[in-house]
Amino acid sequence: MRLKNLRMAVGGAALLSIAGCVTINIYFPAAAAEKAADRIIEEVWQGQPGEIRPKAAPEPEGAPAQPKQ
Amino acid sequence: MIKLFPWRWSALVLAGLMLVPVAAPAADLEINTPAINAIKSSMQQRHAQLAPHYGSGAVGLTRDGMVAVRDANQVALPKRAAVNGLVAAENQDRVALYREIARANGHPEWEAEIRNTFAQRWIDRAQAGWWYQNPAGAWTKK
Amino acid sequence: MTRATRSVVVAALGLIVLAVAAGDARVTLTMEDIEGPDFSARGVNLELLGAELDRLRLVVDDLSVAGRSWRGVRLECGRFSLGRETLTCGEGVLRAPSPVAVAFSYSPASGRFEVEVSPGAGEFWRVAGRAAGGTWNLRASVVNGNPTRLADWLPAVIPRPREGNIGAEITASGRGDQWSRVEGNVEFRDLAFSDEPGLHAGEKVAGRVGIAATRSGERGEWSADAQWTSGEIFWQPLYLSGGGYRISAHGSFAASRVGVSAGSVVLGSIGAAAFSGELGRAPWSLKRLELRAPNIELGPLFDAVGRPFLQQTALAEAEAVGQADMDLLYEGGEVQTVRLDVRRAALLDTRERFVLGGVEARIPWSRHAPGEGEIRIGAGHLLRVPFGPAVIPLEIQPGGFSVAAARVPLLEGELTLENFTAEREGTGWRWSLGGGLSPVSMENLTKALGIHVMHGTLSAVVPRVRYAGATLEVDGALLINAFDGTAVISGLSMQEPLGRAPRLRAEVDMRGLDLDLLTRTFDFGSMQGKVDVTVRGLELSNWRPVALDARVASSPGDYPRKISQRAVQNISALGGAGAAAAIQRSFIGIFEQFGYSRLGLSCRLERGVCHMAGIEDVPSGYVIVKGGGIPALTVMGYNRTVGWNELLARLQRITQENVKPVIK
User: Fold this and answer.
1) Within an 8 Å CB–CB cutoff, is residue A64 touching chain C?
2) Which residue on chain B is closest to A53 by alpha carbon?
């Protein structure tokens, strides 16, 4: 419901920006907020302390170690 | 010949580096900051004490993302002050959590929206039998 | 009461209808409407039945008394007699609608009346009295009364009684609608009461309330005595149990005021207080209160009324002992003076975070004039760091207090406090102070704190610290001498320092730190030399860094520069996986120590990632340690980004695991 309103508001704002050259570049990321809320609620209500799930996929960075001769 | 850095050791360091967290993709909200983690673990620990009170209906989830003493009669007299304390501490954490999420994402003005989102999700994910406030503010059993 | 009776009689006289049926006698009296003050009855039908007209049946369609109403009220008397002198109703049953045994009698000539209601077995509510010649007296008594019957009659603000047993004996007399004497005694036991949300409730409560008053005209005298002997009460946020509480007072009253004199209140193990004062009537208000509470026991007082209000503070798990005298004067809607004398008191945290012992305090406060007080502390410790003894002179103003100067011994040094001022601001406090710490040994301090033992001395000069609106700000700079160098912390501010997620911002500049002391302290592998540390934009959230731009680099100047093999390894590890050590000349490998000319490492922390750099960039990376002298050694870093948590984990591994170089 709220999401729908928001979408409408953003849509409306987009129309306005075309019509009146108003730039709207900040909006509330409702879907991301819901996802974040779900993750936190899940941990608070079901997880035990210290049982925090790993985050983003690991990615190696930088060059491997090399001794300079 | 002396080798100051045997390969085995370097490999260990390399393996350690594999765990480097990368900046979250733009689509996700940042929720992995020291403050948020501290609040979260404090709430996690408290949940074990609060859960029976959610179940008995002594404490319910409010429509504004907080918790409240709904019916203290479910709790023995000497323990009522403790329930009040739990509720007050939980609400302090919740306010701090919403504010910190907004701050961590560089938009302190999102606090109210984040609180609204949480309010809905706490209620949606509540167990059957728990009490929550419907949008009109009336206590309802899930 | 008499007025109501009169109007009822007048209405009845006008509406009597007599009907005598064949065989059986019957008198029927019908009334449309009876009105009196606080009383109305509609559709009243009274019948006398039986051959002797000795049974009565009264039906009232709508009855309302004192704001409450019933529909279809029926009264039947099995033994009814209407003699010349007396009207009696025996074996009566009142249905409203549940049946209740009643009996009553009334003698118009003498004015005597008696009503007895027995709603339960062994339970009686009686009123008897006499009204004649304008004067009246009555005696009400309750035996085994069930207090739940009063539930609907009590004002909404009073918690509903749920169960219990009441006995009462009340006598009153007066003339017309004026009472002249009231005396009552109510005893209750096993009383349970609660409001709807259960925030004001009691269970198994037993006690007694006695009142007495006499009046002539608008003036009179009163006395009252209430005792709570056992049971438990939760009155948010207070929980009291066990009883031993008593309050009594007497005084005089007039049309607009009630005087209270010789009041005394006994609060179980807390102590006793004497009070006097004055109440205003219509509306009820407290005009004046004088309270004197000598020898209050601070332990039970803190348990009962202190801790519940301090749930979310550092004092939530504290215990208090000691005694105090307290005087208070309230007048004209405001507290005028408070005097608090604390003797032989101590405050200790059950989690041993702090102890404050041998506390003596004298705190006089007045709304009108400044006063002087004092707090003496015998000894204490905070996070296991001992301090004291100290004398803190207080200047007390109507809106706050200040301390011109105070010294608190701390370890072998001294903490000085200057120009401390605190004042109320809305619901919170605003305070500021200056001060400093004369040198204490870091070794003693860190040992006391139970953290890594550090060397050097710690001293500080704090020009001004201000706290307002949950934000703490330090003006000027904080100077610390440690590791033979100096540290300057400037731009220090803290938001919500006592909240769940305190936030700290600061700039740090450290000059000439002795590497030998530093590396020994943290078991990093020996290094010699001096470093400068600069931290810009340091931001801690919940005491952990979330943003900073830090740089460690060799200090300028001449001093020995040596680095051990182990330190080289550890620095390389900090540089990330890409870091590696290179030995300039192969034969140098046999040495335990190497020379260097310059070293430096920086980290810019953003969103959990540390962006690293060294003293200079080279095509494939950056230089962390630049070789110099003989034997010389250079350490390179290749990796420019490392996760902050990983960096901390490595640092911890290095300083704890005591990594030894592998020599083949």
Assistant:
1) yes
2) B32
Distance of CA C655 to the CA centre of its chain: 44
pLDDT beneath 70, residues of chain B: 1-27
Which residues of chain C carry a pLDDT beneath 70?
Answer: 1-24, 311-313, 498, 500, 573-590, 656-664
Distances (CA, A) of C222 to C184, C185, C255, C258: 12, 14, 14, 9
Q: Which of C359, C289, C353, C287 is nearest to C320 (CA)?
A: C359
Instruction: Tell me the residue length of chain A.
Output: 69
CB-CB neighbors (< 8 A) of C621 in chain A: 63
- What's the rounded Cα separation, in Å, for the pair A51 and A43? 8
Min distance C625 CA to chain B CA atoms (Å): 15
End-to-end Cα, chain B, rounded Å = 73
Cβ of A62 and C576 within 8 Å? yes
Residues of C in contact with A57 (CB under 8 A): none
Determine the pLDDT at residue A5: 52
Any C CB within 8 A of B111 CB: no
Q: What are the residue ranges spanned by the domains of chain B? A: 30-141
Report the distance separating Cα C259 and Cα C279, nearest Å: 6
Residue A57 backbone dihedrals phi, psi, to 5 degrees: -60, 140
Omega before A58 cis (within 30°)? Answer: no
**And the tokens for B13?**
């360091």
Parallel, antiparallel, or unpaired: how do β-strands C580-583 and C633-637 relate?
antiparallel
Cβ <8 Å between C578 and A63: yes
H-helix or E-strand containing B124? helix B111-125
What is the value of pTM for the model shown?
A: 0.70
- In whole angstroms, give the CA distance from residue C496 to residue C428: 12
What does the pLDDT read at residue C200?
Answer: 92
- Residue in C with minimal Cα distance to A66: C580
How big, in percent rounded to 5, are the helix, strand and coil portions of chain C? 10, 65, 25
CA-based nearest residue to C163, from C121, C192, C194: C192
pLDDT digits (tens, 9 = 90+) for C108-141: 888 899 999 999 889 999 999 998 888 999 999 9
The C-alpha angle with vertex C408 and arms to C407 and C409, in degrees rounded to 5, equals 115
Put simply, the chain C residues between 184 and 203 with a CB less than 8 A from any chain B CB are 194, 197-199, 201-203
Q: What is the ipTM of this complex?
A: 0.77
Give helix then strand counts, H and E, for chain C. Answer: 6, 44
Which residue spans within C195-280 are E strands per DSSP?
200-216, 219-235, 238-241, 245-253, 257-267, 271-280
C-alpha angle C197-C201-C203 in degrees, rounded to nearest 5: 135
- The strand pairing partners of C279, in sequence order, are C258, C286
Contacts of B20 in chain A (CB under 8 A): 58-59, 61
Residues 6+ apart with CB under 8 A from C250: C221, C222, C223, C224, C260, C261, C262
The set of residues, in sequence order, having a beta carbon less than 8 Å from that of C268 and lying 6+ positions away, is C240, C242, C243, C244, C245, C300
